[in-house]
Amino acid sequence: MTSFPGLGRSHRLCPHGIGFLTLIALLAAPMAGAQSTGGRIRGTISDPSGASVAAATVTLISEATGAKRDVQSGASGEYIFIEVPVGSYELDVTQTGFKKYVRKGIALDLNQVVSVDITLQLGSSTESVEVTGAPPVVDTSSTQLGAVVNERSSTQLPLNQRDVYQLLQLQPGVQSQLGNDLFYGSDRAGVVTVNGGRGRSNNYTVNGGDGNDLFANLPAVEPSPDSIEEFRVISNSFDAEYGRNSGAVVNVVTKSGTNDVHGSFYEFFRNDVLNTHPFSFSPSPKPAFKQNQFGGTIGGPIKKDKTFFFGSYEGRRIVQGIVSQPVTVPTGTQVGGDFSDLATFTGSLTDSTVAGMLQDRCGSGSSLPANQRLSPAAQVLVAGVAGGGNPVPYSSIFAGNQIPTGCFDPVALSLLQYVPGAGGSANTVVTVPNKRDRGDQFQIKIDHSFNNNQKTAVYYYFDDDNTLDPFAKFQAEGAPLGNFPGVYATRTQQINVSHTSTIGSTSVNEFRFTFFREGQLRFDTPTRTNAIQASCGTGAVSAFCFTGTSDSATLNAACAGGAVSTADCGIHSGLGSKIEGVPFIQLNGGFSIGNNAGGQLPQVGNTFQVSDNFS
User: Fold this and answer.
1) Which of 67, 97, 132 finishes a domain?
2) Is residue 237 part of a domain?
3) 581 closest CA partner among 571, 593, 591, 595
4) pLDDT by residue (tens digit) across 224-282?
5) 193 and 127 share one domain
6) Tens-place pLDDT, residues 361-402
7) Residue 420 lies in a domain
């Protein structure tokens, strides 16, 4: 086998996009294969006495398209058909002095080697012996372990959200990660751990072309179940033709048209009318759920026995309520400064700058009413620390766990508007925001047979997906109550062109070109945007909202002493109100607010593959 694979990738994330195409030439043993989209049928021909029959004509006929291939048996009676597309076949054998042998219904699965040994009967070639029944399916030519999921399983087994990769978890050694929605992509059906490996360590191919997400190594090309002929998962000891990843290999082959016109139309609808309330540790509203998936397929001949087509479309419209984790928030009494329901404050005031800030806001430097300031005794204690004195326990400053409201930072108080349930009667809140998914997928495949020895296939895949994730939890950096959602818009395309040439009776050359493009121009894009300094609303607090200026003279002096300008003490990204928003702020042991801390990650990647495989 001679193989010439290539890979290219470019990103629009950087101002100067980088595109490159790398060509690598590999020489391997003659019988090694590339990532095949077919299988092999082989066997030995003998007479009734067991002697080999040489130079017999063996004809392989596709029962779907009528395509034929001929080989001659060798001196030892052996024959082989390589790079045979998946499907059902008829095998005819003729030789002078023997009856014609006909065997129908030979099913060939993806990457399978089917052995069909034939015993010819003496007689005239005008007579025939027809044999029906499945040949042995034990593959003794390969050590790789795996399983095939056929078209019937893909379309008739129940699949939540019609994701055919859910069937992977039915195979030995495969563990699903559904429900483990901790980071981007971890909840996808195709992200499975195989024999203890990582969920992001698998290799996905569709019709022999690359189908891997370029950024997180997730399954990116996911044809609808009605368009899949079959797929094979190889979980262990796979051949040298497969590489790239240490996990499993998932090889998908989509349907082709036949001499008969076939089609289907469908709509799958689910909603929450008959759903029970899901289990949760904390009381929560019943999650919303509306799922519509609709589409159809059609395939048939363009020219009988020569040119065929198969196309499919599927639309997805899903609204699903997601129950958040319980989050601790301040109650109304706590917002008013009363923390008497909690254990006595621990720790001590040690920092002179913090002490000076308390003096400015609610101590001797404050003009607020007495009920919003520290007690005279507490003011003396704070003044001592501000002057460089010994630390003072917080329980002595805030007796009875009572904090005067004047001590609160006005910016912090204004940001409580972004905390659902803050200021209420409960200190734990659970929300049920809606996740929305809108997607459209289209596929078309054209197969053309120039003659029995020259065949071309062209496949195009297009999927446009727009998901609103209320938690925007990419890399676990999103707000936990679902009120700072992010948009993930992904457009995936694959163009796959292959040409297969049968050379003589024992050789096949396959040329393949694949272009795969994944565009994520909106990735973790926030829906709530504003200038950072507008995060606190209007009024007097707006002057202190991440501007670099504080309501405390002590803090302003500290900033002036260690910064070039007061702006250095604020947050000034310079991105503008259409991109900025509430900064990500996390309270240890409590709530978080703001857009995802990782920021937006728009990106585009291209992969080019060119290979020529001779077997």
Assistant:
1) 132
2) yes
3) 595
4) 999 999 888 877 766 666 667 777 788 899 999 999 999 999 999 999 888 888 877 77
5) no
6) 999 888 899 999 999 999 999 999 999 999 999 999 999 999
7) no
